[in-house]
Amino acid sequence: MAANTHSLWFTQMIEYNVPPLRQEALAEALVSRSEQLAQRCAGLLNVSIQVSDDGQRVLQHLQWQSREAWSAAAGCFVEEPFLDLLCQHQARGVNFSAYQTLRSLVRGADGGLHCQVGASQAYQGA
């Protein structure tokens, strides 16, 4: 399926595979870097740093206003010493993926799930 140009936002996910003793330190480093990135890039809406129960993976989830906002912020990435981060935390592998968000279900005040159609529109989902 081709990416829809009318998506709600653009999501970038980076999964790091690290030794269990490095998981917490990498997660903290990613939180710090994400805060710095958010200050420099207005198009960054949301960042989530997640860790696996097995201690070997860290997932960084970045949500951008649009693919264009992500592209405009790409200049900020050049300043990031990404390879240094990987070496410092002994990352054994890194997986990158990107997605266009078409629909997002959120729990409303009424307890039901609602599908966000756009910034100002929402309708009740099943």
Summarize the structure.
This protein is an alpha+beta fold and 126 residues long. Helix content is 29%, strand content 36%.
Largest sheet: 4 strands, antiparallel
Count of distinct structural domains: 1
Proportion of residues in β-strands: 35-45%
What order do the strands of the largest sheet run in, or round the barrel if closed? 2-3-1-4
Give the overall shape: globular
CATH architecture classification name: 2-Layer Sandwich
pLDDT below 50 for ≥5 consecutive residues: which ranges?
119-126
| Number of distinct beta strands | 7
Structural class: alpha+beta
Helix content: 25-40%
| Overall average pLDDT | 83
> What is the ordering of alpha helices and beta strands?
EHEEHHEEEE
Notes on the structure:
By secondary structure, this protein is an alpha+beta fold. The protein has a single domain (9-124), classed as Alpha-Beta Plaits. 29% of the residues lie in helices and 36% in strands. The protein is built from 3 helices and 7 strands, in the order E-H-E-E-H-H-E-E-E-E. The strands form 2 sheets. It has a 4-stranded antiparallel sheet with strand order 2-3-1-4. A 3-stranded antiparallel sheet has the order 5-6-7, with no helix packed on it. The longest helix is centred in the N-terminal third of the chain and has 18 residues, at 23-40. The protein is globular. It holds the Pfam family ABM. This is Antibiotic biosynthesis monooxygenase. One of its GO terms (molecular function) is monooxygenase activity.
